[in-house]
């Protein structure tokens, strides 16, 4: 015998074994990752607090690198820096935009003093927080259409990219304040401009940039080819991603993109589902390969049950190793799936109208959400308002297939139906709780005024519908 102690058998538990950490059997990083990725913890997520200061729907939320400050932008054209733990405002300032802010991001390694924004007014702007607390804002560049998203180059305090409904992708360098037109995205068949809604940089390979919009393809470009002598061929994507059954479908588009830490690409389709692509699922530079090759390669993981029809919604990962997929929905709920098999784990009631944005904390097992409501919601394990799990929720039909909801089904067309549905759900849940021996607490809807009453927002709304929401 070697005299070495036998290894303990590994047991797959969703609950983290805290005692292993106490005895030194689990390294610090492993403990942290297992704790944050625990499905038991995920099922305990509840509404912890609301951040209420904006006067329009909140289109963008993001944490700083340390995770102690939350940045938000709204239809009211204000940028707010929050101490989210105390639900207090650290700083609020006018962005300089004259229409709805669609995206706001901190630049890395800037001591959280450099912020870039994009908006429905076609502008890309730069804001610098001075030592005095004053904020200087300036125009960096303009697109020929609304600018829904921007993507910061990982680790760079100066470099970021934007995409607009004009199909253009631009690169910005804060050192020179110069905007470089990289390319205009066009589809291959008729050479038509693709209106872009989403852009993302691969964190493992910052040279790869993905864009998507009003057609079926997520296109990946190699930024390094622009910076080399062969930059003249940069307008050609190095890869295309699309589920096989959607190729040639003129009725779908992509509203959100996200890269995982493993270089997987997540795409949220309008009027369809969410798909996860691994790098080997790409169709290559030519978007119309042979049918046999397409069938062999197009096998992405799919995530269903939500609805993405009304607005330009993002999509994101959750967990220390991107173990989960999260998305908002037209039904006002947050949907959480297990990444590896697409199983729906949670469907939390979050907004009276539509949830557009979900952002994960960089270090802790919590998230924030925003949408058509004027507040931001913080979701933590053990939150005071804990929705039901999908297994105990009512099943309702919508968008041609069943959806699992926490709490009760809301018929948005009739408030009286809301009340009767709530009462019916309460009765159903009570019988289930008695049968299962469990008691779950439902979220009750608040009575805050809707953002659409703000006259200034209506005056500045480009689409003329007066609702002021993105998309």
Automatic annotation (TrEMBL):
SUPFAM superfamilies cross-referenced by the UniProt entry: WD40 repeat-like
Region (Disordered): 379-471
UniProt biased composition (Acidic residues): 409-441, 449-471
Protein keywords: Repeat, WD repeat
Coiled-coil regions listed: none
PROSITE patterns linked to this entry: WD_REPEATS_2 (PS50082), WD_REPEATS_REGION (PS50294)
Keyword Repeat assigned: yes
InterPro entries assigned to the protein according to its UniProt record, in alphabetical order: DCAF8, WD40/YVTN_repeat-like_dom_sf, WD40_repeat_dom_sf, WD40_rpt
Stored Pfam families: WD40
WD repeat ranges per the UniProt record: 51-92
Keyword Repeat: yes
A GO term from the CC aspect: cullin-RING ubiquitin ligase complex
PANTHER family: TRANSDUCIN_WD40 REPEAT-LIKE SUPERFAMILY PROTEIN, WD REPEAT DOMAIN-CONTAINING FAMILY
Protein family per UniProt: Belongs to the WD repeat DCAF8 family.
Protein name: Transducin/WD40 repeat-like superfamily protein
Species per Swiss-Prot/TrEMBL record: Arabidopsis thaliana
Source species taxonomy: Eukaryota, Viridiplantae, Streptophyta, Embryophyta, Tracheophyta
